[in-house]
Amino acid sequence: MLKGFYKFIFFNILGWKVKGSFDKNVKQGLIVVGPHTSNSDFFIGVMARRILDLNAHFVAKDSLFVWPFGSYFKWMGGYPVIRSRNTKLTDTIADIFKKEDDLLIAITPEGTRSKVENIKSGFWHIAKKADIHYFLCGFDYGNKELVVSEPYKARSWEEDRLKAIQFFGELTGKNPEKDMRHLLKAEKESQSE
Questions:
Q1: 34 vs 4, 74, 105, 157, 170, CA distance in Å?
Q2: pLDDT in tens, 182-192
Q3: Where is the Phospholipid/glycerol acyltransferase domain (predicted)?
Q4: Which of 18, 24, 118, 145 has an alpha carbon 20 to 30 Å from 171's alpha carbon atom?
């Protein structure tokens, strides 16, 4: 019943559509979601997760998992994480995959809702260490599309970084001034020099 309600809101009320699909044969993987520019992304993602029948979890900063919303975020499938440099976050998440045979975890390549000057390599390190696939999944508010890539295996950081920038650099975030289109523009300019 909730799936039907989310479909009605997502497609009919909000006018979104889905472009691409998740390969159901991939049982372990990361869903690299961006551009992450607004709290609205969480709610679009929650609806999409239900509509697409994904048993996807997410990681978020531990400060979100306190009263009054902590129980809600855990119920929604959240894993609280400490994001300091000394916590070995990528190792922690890779270890979760070694214990779980059927697990999808959503993370953002920016690690923040603010404008970034590059994407972070965390998703790549996790995919490499855990030997799992990753999907690129984008919120394109300009076209009201949830865009899903094919599954990828981590190769070199430079190759996967460029793949992510090319994918997310085509999408308009809820707050366009914070999305990743400027990263694609800078990449194209550096390649033309």
A1: 25, 21, 14, 18, 11
A2: 999 999 988 87
A3: 30-142
A4: 24
Q: In whole angstroms, what is the distance from residue 31 CA to residue 58 CA?
A: 9
pLDDT value, residue 100 = 87
- Backbone dihedral angles phi then psi of residue 46, each to the nearest 5 degrees: -60, -45
Choose among 61, 59, 66: nearest CA to 83: 61
In a domain, 15, yes or no: no
* 73-95 average pLDDT score: 80
- Residues 148 and 150: their CA atoms lie apart, in Å, by 7
For residue 139, is it within any domain?
no
- Beta strands at 56-61 and 78-81: parallel, antiparallel or unpaired: parallel
Is residue 141, in this structure, part of any structural domain at all? no
Residue 6 lies in a domain: no
| Model pLDDT for residues 135-181, shown as the tens digit of each residue | 999 999 999 999 999 999 999 999 999 999 999 999 999 999 999 99
